[in-house]
Write a structure and sequence with these properties.
There is one protein chain. This protein is α+β, with helices and mostly antiparallel strands. It contains 8 helices and 7 strands; from the N terminus they run H-E-H-H-E-E-H-H-E-E-E-E-H-H-H. The protein has a 3-stranded antiparallel beta sheet with strand order 1-3-2.
């Protein structure tokens, strides 16, 4: 019989319900979940311990079967200028039904420029900084944009371009 830690290790730390049920019973799975030996990351995806943000994004890809694009605070975290510390994952709508919950926000952002960071697609840093700045209160706008510039993730030209592209959207006047 395959040991659970070997199963998780062989699959990058994340496994699906189907993979688990191939080696343990549904009752054993329930027992492991109740005891805290296995953690449910998303519907049908499990880990031995709560994963980091990259792991949660990978688990969401497993759950949906689609590539997931990070945006807003999640993208800001990967770009190195997340000052809001929002623990929820913020992702672009992958085209399959995903319900937002306390751990996940799904956004509609047509036309958002994308960039690959650490092997993962996400909104470009300038766009992300302006998006986040549009959602925070006026006192945090400057701090958000300053953090984006100081991190070196984007330039003032990229920020200006993102502001122009987002003209007419809610909160852009504050930016």
């Amino acid at each position: 019989m395959v040991r659970l830690d070997e199963l998780f290790a062989a699959n990058g730390g994340l496994v699906t319900t189907g993979q688990l049920l191939a080696v343990i019973t549904r009752k054993a799975l329930a027992s492991h979940l109740e005891a805290g030996a296995i953690v449910r990351v998303w519907h049908g995806v499990y880990a031995l311990e709560p994963p980091d943000t990259a792991g949660r994004l990978a688990a969401l890809e497993m759950a949906t079967g689609r590539p997931i694009v990070a945006c807003m605070g999640t993208a800001a975290q990967f770009h190195g200028f997340d000052i809001e510390r929002d623990s929820r994952l913020h992702v672009l709508d992958p085209g399959v039904r995903i319900r937002p919950n306390r751990n996940l926000m799904v956004h509609q952002r047509l036309g958002a420029p994308l960039r690959r960071v650490q092997g993962r697609l996400m909104t470009a840093p300038g766009w992300t900084a302006v998006e986040v700045a549009r959602t925070v209160n006026r006192r945090r706008v400057l701090a958000t944009l300053d953090a984006a510039l100081r991190s070196g993730a984007c330039s003032t030209t990229e920020l200006r371009s993102a502001v122009t592209e987002q003209r007419g959207r809610r909160g852009i006047v504050a930016v």
